[in-house]
Amino acid sequence: MASTDPHADGYTHSAAREQVTWTTVLYVLIAFALNTMLQPAGTVCGGPPAIGFMLRSSPIICLVDTGYLLYRLVYYYFTSNRRKVAHARLLRLRYQSWDDGAEDEVDTLGKMQMNQPVRLLVFLLTLPQFIRLYAFSGLYWSKMIASMYLASFVIVEILVVRPRAWKLGAIDQPGGDNREKRIKSSGSLSLPYVSVALAVAFMSRFGASALRDALDEPHTALLKHLGLVTFGSWTLALVFCYVMCAIDRVSWRDILLPTVLLAPMLGIPWVYYTLGPRIAAAIDRPLLVQVVSAGLAIAWVTVGLTYASTVTSGIRHTAKDQPRVEKHRRYIEKVLAWYFMLLHLVTAIMYLRYSYDPTGTSKPKWSEYLG
């Protein structure tokens, strides 16, 4: 029956305008992420500086990197008992050349990160979005993710970016003797590999939810879509890495174990897809399904850590003595880093488009003037 209240339609439209749309949330989160990514943060999670921009597209990477930064500062302080010395050591760790005896290549992104006027302009343009988000009601997940970006930006800016600009402490030159020992940058238990694995698990969980909601299926279908998203998202990257590293192998032994591991890497997601409905039916509890889906994602990336370590071990060792292989190694890192960032963007768009619910959200009238 049609409403007899002449003000009903007007009230409904007004309420709808007060809710926060998914495009607004996406725009604000991109502003938070971009501001953080443009920082010249050095070795993010101990990884190559050239891919720091792409790595910090992940809020999980930002969280892990910030925690590690604070840990190293405390560690340096207790081992030196001098605040200034501890800070100088932290700066060297973050900004010393990636390869001893060689200067790091600075590409266009690196130059943009070092351009203070550009960074200041981006900060001023994104500042209104920071204010808008925290003025909105609801949006707890979005605010938590945005806070990861913002906390990383503030702490990195205070502890390393600003002090480096003020030349606090000595930062080594290529081949210098005052280098800090870098953390292990590769291997299944290394910080770069583990942090990326956590980010992949986090992203896969949201991607599976988005696909489930896009197809309008029940919550119990999450496990099935986790397998589908995992396979569809990462097969291309896994095969690319396998082929590139096989090209630069020293012997067939270097590619034997990765070949064995590639089968479960591609097969495990299909196990999720096939058995997901049965597992969900046996559990029959939405919250427990969420927990099991997280466990399955972590199980897959755990196997992935072993695969990544073995498939790249040969090229890492060969690159030390062969410039051609070293060039290939850097190329692989950049391609995978850009792919990692692109998947984060696609996942965010998909999740907000299909899984975001504006119910319970609202924005004050004055926030419309900020963007």
Please tell me about this protein's structure:
The structure is a single chain. By secondary structure, the chain is mainly alpha-helical. It folds into two domains: 19-182, no CATH class; 191-354. The protein is 72% helix and 0% strand. It has 13 helices and no strands. It has helices at 8-18, 22-37, 52-55, 59-80, 83-95, 108-114, 116-135, 140-165, 191-214, 222-247, 253-283, 286-319, 323-354. The longest helix is centred in the last third of the chain and has 34 residues, at 286-319.
Total domains: 2
Strand content: under 5%
Main sheet record: none
Shape: globular
End-to-end C-alpha gap: 39 Å
Low-confidence stretches: 1-16, 169-176
The number of E-state strands comes to 0
Q: So how many helices? A: 13
Structural class: mainly alpha
Mean pLDDT: 83
Radius of gyration: 23 Å
Q: Helical percent range? A: over 70%
H/E order of the elements?
HHHHHHHHHHHHH
Essential attributes:
13 helices, 0% strand, mainly alpha, single chain
What's this entry about, in short?
This protein has 371 residues and is mostly helical.
Helix/strand layout:
Elements: H1 8-18, H2 22-37, H3 52-55, H4 59-80, H5 83-95, H6 108-114, H7 116-135, H8 140-165, H9 191-214, H10 222-247, H11 253-283, H12 286-319, H13 323-354
Helix pairs in contact: 2-7, 2-8, 2-13, 4-5, 4-8, 4-9, 5-8, 9-10, 9-12, 9-13, 10-11, 10-12, 10-13, 11-12, 12-13
